[in-house]
Structure formats: structure tokens, C-alpha cells
TrEMBL record:
It comes from the Bacteria. Residues 136-158 have a biased composition (Low complexity). It comes from Ethanoligenens harbinense (strain DSM 18485 / JCM 12961 / CGMCC 1.5033 / YUAN-3). This is Uncharacterized protein. SUPFAM superfamilies: DPP6 N-terminal domain-like. Residues 133-158, 393-440 are annotated as: Disordered.
Amino acid sequence: MHFNLHIKLDKKKLFRYGALFLAGLAVLVGAEAGVLYYLNNVYLHENDHYQVTRLSSSSSQSQKHHALTLSSAAQDISVSHDGNYLAYLENGTIQIADMTSGQLTTVPAQKNRVVSYFKWVYDHDRLIIVEKNTPGSGSADDSVSSSSGTKSSRSSSSDDYFAEFYSFDMSDKSIQLVRDYMNDNDVRISLNSASDSITDMDMSTETVVTYLKITSSAGRSRLWEANITVRNAALSDLPTHNIGKIQSLKSSDGLLYEDSDTGHVYLYSAKKETSTIFSVNGQKDLRLLGFDQSDNQYFGIVQNNLVTSIAYGNPLTQTWQTISLPVPTDPAAILVAYNGTVYVNDPSAYTMKELADGKATAYTGSVAGIYDSGFYTLDSGVVTDHPVSTAASSGVSSAASGSTASGTPSAAASSSKGSISLSVASATSERYKSSSASSK
């Protein structure tokens, strides 16, 4: 009997210790889930960069887009990657046009702020908005601590001017102030004066890092890194204050930026906090042209300020494919869509050419923006869609369904994220099969 009692006591202890262990595990899992939920659903809604639904663009390519009439006050048109949404600024307020339904959504500035910049996230129907504060407006949130017990990422109370991020999601029409919830900090960008403006921005939803270009009224520019997991601060010791285009790496926390004085491109390492001159196959006179969904970065090889060829690939591995251009081209005329389609715009001839097959589309007015399977133009206040049949030439749809551009089935393209990304890379190479072979 004594033996049986001992067994019963051990079972009770085991049950109690097991319950305590499970409770502790639940707390840890809950905390981790909370952090992941914030990263995935609040800060840029990071998701799988190579989702099959994103790569299969047949629905967006066949989607009919409405024409849009703008008032004379409309400016700064930004087109979403699938072409379904256009955002623009009108009298200080952002308007978003659903080009599939014709509906218009108004996104007013928050807390008496001033909209300084906005841009669609490259793989979401989500708009990132940067708004500057207006000192003296009476907004209580302009103080160093936006609420009692809440810290600010600003360096001191003497910072009277700053900007903040907002994220607007078209799926539920919600707007979110981007904050560092893990450290209970406001994600604020310090400005030197009220005349400072954000003039460029690029981000990675994979690394949750955003870079901004801030330009003063005198034309001097500087760069800012907003990385909620590491730092929120200006980039120091930059080699230039005349910065051109910026382009963030998508799978690592680095940044490419142009030096408009020398024509060089610099690669900034967030880990080392240093900038080094970047080269492609020994060429240092470069221009940033864009990136695609396979994390290829596109560079223009420049002679006499004109692009003579295009190199695309991974800047970290230095593996490149090159595309020779028929004639030297203005870098501003070369446009890269998220699915890897390269357009060449000829504004004097009013034609947009898809580089892979040379097909030209005529238009009137001026090009307002490109998307994966077409482009928009603005003519006498009317925005018009120009769909381009890029599905067959780009290979994006076939890659998503398990084939490369040549029609050869890829290995288990739908079975893993890595396989899909390789399929798209193969399709991009096949699309420009007349180009020279990759080099390292």
C-alpha cells in the first residue's frame, strides 16, 4: 500500500510540473507570436517574397483598368506594382484611385502633418506615407514623448522638426503609424529644418528596413536608415551630399545609392556602417535602374552619361547577366517593372518599347508610371492605361506554373519558395537570351 501511495504522489508532482512547463512554454510562444505578428502585419506586412500568387500575373495582366481624370492640382502619381491602384497628391491630401473599379479613396494627413513623400510597397497593395510635423500647430503629439510613458527615437528635445511613417492598406482601408513596438519607440526621422523634404525612399519587406533620402532647400541630401530591429538614424560619413537614386537590397540590409558628382554608385553596408564604391565587371560609371522580384538589381553601364548596356544580378555575389542596347539611352528612359520587364521610353517618338521583344506601344502625353504588365500615361489631365502583353516574353506566368520562359518544366517549381525564385531568375535570363553570358 505504501508503494501505491508513492506512485500516486509522483503522478501528482509530474502533472503539476508538466502544467507549469506548458504554461511557461505558452507564454514564450505567445511573446514570439506577438513580435512576429507586428513584423508581418504592422510594419510593412512582410510576407513570403516569392509567393506563387504574386508570381502568377495572369489575373493582373488581363485586368481592365479605368481611365482617370485628374484636376489641375493633382501631382506626384505613384503606381502600384500590379497597376490596380494609383496614388496622387491633391491639395495636400493623398487620393488613391482603384483603377479596376473606378472608386476613389481619400487619405488625409494625420495630426495636422504635411505629406512629404509616399510610395507603394513593391510587393503589396500597401502605401507607405512619410509626413512631416508642423511645429506650432497645437498638436500634442509633436512633443518629444507622444504619450505618457512612451519613448521617442529622437536624439533630444531640441529636435523641433521630424517626420514619421504611416502605412495605408488597401485591403481594409486602414492607416497605421509605424512604431517600434518591441522597444516602445516612435520611429521618427530627424529633420534639420521645416524646409527639409523626403525626396526618395526604398524599403525591403524581407529585412524590414527602410531607407530615405532627405534633401534640404539648398539641394544637399543625406540618407536615413529606419530599421526597427537595429537602428533608426542618419547614415554617417557619406562620401557625397549630392545623392541621386537610391535602391535597397531586398534580402539583406544594404543600400545602393548614386553619387551625382562622380557618376559612381556606392554600396552601403548596414552591418559595417560603411560605404564603398561599387563596380560591375570593373565598370564604375553606373546608374541605378531598378530591381525585380528575384532580387536582381539592374545597373546601367554608362558612357558619356548614356547607358550603353544593362547588367542585372546579385550585387553581393557579383554574378551578372548583361543586355546590350541598340543605341545609347538616357538612364531616365529605362524603366524596370517588378516582374523583371524592362521598358525603354522614347518621349520624342511617344513610344514605349519592351526590351525583350522590341515591341513598341504608341501613346500621347507623358508616361506617368509603369507596372508589371503595362504603363500609364497622363495627357490633358486624363490618366490612361496601356497594357503590354509581357506574359509570354517575360516568362513570369510560366515560371509560376512550373515552367521557364522556354517552356521547359522547372524542378518542383511549386514545391518550395527557393525553387520558384530560381524559376523566375531562369525566366529572366531566357527572356534576354541574346545577351552575353553571365560573368563573375
